[in-house]
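Here is one chain, start to finish.
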Amino acid sequence: MEPLTDPQQSKFPFLRQDFAASLVVFLVALPLCVGIAVASGVPAEMGLITGIVGGLVTGAMRGSSLQVSGPAAGLTVLVFEAVQSFGLPALGVLVLTAGLLQLVMGALRLGRWFRAISLSVVEGMLAGIGLVLVAGQLYSAAGMEAPASGTGKVAGLPGALAEAVTSPQALASLGVGAGTVALMVVWRRTPKRVRVVPGALAAVVVATAVSVAFALPVATVRVEGLLDAVQMPGLSEFGGLASLSMLGTVLAFTLIASAESLFSAAAVDRLHDGPRTEYDRELMAQGVGNTVCGALGALPMTAVIVRSAANVQAGARTKASRVLHGLWLLLFAALLPSALELIPLPALAGILVHAGWKLIPLRTVVALWREHRGEALILVVTAVSIVAVNMFEGVLIGLALSVAKAAWDASHIRLEVDDSGTGCVRARLSGNATFLRLPKILDSLEALPQDRPVELDLSGLHHLDHACRTALETWAQRHSAPGTDPVQLTGPGAR
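Its structure:
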């Protein structure tokens, strides 16, 4: 007799694991959605809308089965600059257009090519975002208005701190923010059964309870209602796409959101043994999500490694967990919006200071400096450029440096000479022999003795282009003085 099985369980064999994981991801995502929206200069509900779309729409699509999408700290600075420059109604146009571009790139199978972007540029981009985010949110933690530019934020911190010390209200606000960061840091050292509650949620709950209990003079989240926060872009807003500055912002949204999502997918794949990411499908899923977010006037979305890692670690097995997390966000926003009004803004600022600090790869910079100083330099210059100029131009500077370094590496060549003073002179070329390095190669070879036999080994060359091959053959024919054996070319590149 065959054992009876639950038809529902056979249809959804991992429902219990996915349900539990969805609750964990929801608790991680809730404070981040609200905090990122506030830091971006938009209503808190806009962050929840993006989280809902990331769960219910992108979460239901194919691509990466376990990574979770929503508003990301990595786009906070760019969104804030865009809202300040073009206005809140234009945000939907920017996000919608970026989503359409992602759909086109996914359809053209360009998703895998994002893996070719230098990791140093991506980490430098995240480091620059982290620096600007931390600096800006320190002002918010003290209840102050932050300067507009990245350099202004960093340079103004000492003066802002001195001003906060003399203001009881600023000190109270700063205390709530500092307490939030401190609680999130120590939360990782609490017993495992305590850490079932995400640190960000615990910090917000404690900060809210303290603020209410002691009636602290701190600003709290303003709530408009989920439907009121929806701002569908009008046709007149699309006219702004004719400007180069707006198009540049769209390209920045597209590049950063796509790169962050696909790098996150690669990281999530290393955390589990399930199906691997289909990069082009994942790019299209992100494009659909951003198109919907843009149509609703919400924040842009990316796949977020913090939520995705929480999803995997909580035992998720299928994409059902991320869809359910979107459902829980929707129910919370619809049924308990007034709960948001109790959350103190400095607590959200503290969460983002913590998130921004984690974007700065200090250990990576140290390791790169020891082994690959060129890559470390690209990372640092990209980060500093983002702080000093802006997001888009900073990334372009990093990409330009990466291309320049690749060109330099591709043309790098070394000549080793073994000359005992008598007999045959043995020389060996290694690296990449391209026309870019041809003058240096010929100068070094022409300095070899002409009155003794010369043997040039080409086996160490990774690449020998036509211009260099012809020049070496010509040099070999003409180098030796009359009465001396001609130069011998040996190795795979010799003829």
